[in-house]
């Protein structure tokens, strides 16, 4: 199944602020990737998992799955030469599904971490992100992460944001939800004091549905890399995908896809290119 490409651009205001802090080398990529892939070990079709609530990376529109991630995985599949059998699931079910072999590949704004690399393999990074705080638009007490101590903070179940809240914000309670819209509604309804999640999604929500109810505060937190996750034991697939990813970054395909969704090329494109293996 080929996923549909979305060509309409999203407002350029969604661009992340320049100068995202680069992740350290042990957080920046998968454990596999060097050398040429053995095409004889690749399948014709792979099951790709995604969670379609991470706008504008993957979401459902008019009965079709669209988004930046969808275009990226399509471009990689085209270069490697395999078809995509798409499966959707909640975000917290993606890693377990890869571990059990239910899925072969996953793309859903998945941050590369050492813990996750113990369970699955990752491609080279394909996106640089960070965490952003959102609060009610009339709130004047929360101006940065230091003001979140002891508060209830909405975020996504199974995310690195939930880990960040538990590990870095003293006395804070992470209110976790399977769907991101539930996290935003929790803040808008008074059930949580703030939302903390991946910057592009928080910024997109506040520029669209939440423009009259929420605002962002503070600095970008925790520079992060997103990678495509792959079930263990597929080293040739990871290598082939890394080679394809490096190609689409080098030949301008990546920049074109990014511009379709975010309005212009990313300021960190050169940094992304340098992080590639393949």
From TrEMBL:
Annotated Gene Ontology cellular component terms: cell envelope; membrane
Domain Solute-binding protein family 3/N-terminal: 45-265
GO MF annotation list: ligand-gated monoatomic ion channel activity
Lineage top rank: taxon: Bacteria
Signal peptide residue numbers: 1-21
Keywords annotated in UniProt: Signal
SUPFAM superfamilies (UniProt xref): Periplasmic binding protein-like II
Location of the Ionotropic glutamate receptor C-terminal domain: 45-264
Name of the protein described by the UniProt record: Glutamine ABC transporter substrate-binding protein GlnH
């Amino acid at each position: 199944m080929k996923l549909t490409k979305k060509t309409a651009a999203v407002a350029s205001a969604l661009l992340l602020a320049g100068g995202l802090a680069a992740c350290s080398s042990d957080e920046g990529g998968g454990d596999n990737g060097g050398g040429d892939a053995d095409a004889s070990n690749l399948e014709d079709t792979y099951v790709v998992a995604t969670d379609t609530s991470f706008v504008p990376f993957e979401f459902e529109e008019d009965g079709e799955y669209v988004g930046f991630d969808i275009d990226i995985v399509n471009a990689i599949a085209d270069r490697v030469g395999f078809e995509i059998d798409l499966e959707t699931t909640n975000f917290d079910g993606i890693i377990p599904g890869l571990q059990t072999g239910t899925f072969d590949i996953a793309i859903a704004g998945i941050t590369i971490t050492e813990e996750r690399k113990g369970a699955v393999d990752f491609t080279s990074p394909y996106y640089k992100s960070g965490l952003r705080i959102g609060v009610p638009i009339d709130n004047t007490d929360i101006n940065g992460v230091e003001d979140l101590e002891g508060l209830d903070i909405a975020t996504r179940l199974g995310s690195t944001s939930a880990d960040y809240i538990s590990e870095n914000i003293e006395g804070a309670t992470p209110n976790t939800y399977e769907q991101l819209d539930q996290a935003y509604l929790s803040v808008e309804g008074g059930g949580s004091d703030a939302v903390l999640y991946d910057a592009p999604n928080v910024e997109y929500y506040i520029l669209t549905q939440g423009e009259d109810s929420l605002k962002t505060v503070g600095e970008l937190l925790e520079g992060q890399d997103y990678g495509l996750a792959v079930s263990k034991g597929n080293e040739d697939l990871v290598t082939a995908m890394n080679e394809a990813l490096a190609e689409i970054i080098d030949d301008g395909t990546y920049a074109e896809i990014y511009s379709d969704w975010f309005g212009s090329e990313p300021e960190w494109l050169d940094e992304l290119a340098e992080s590639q293996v393949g």
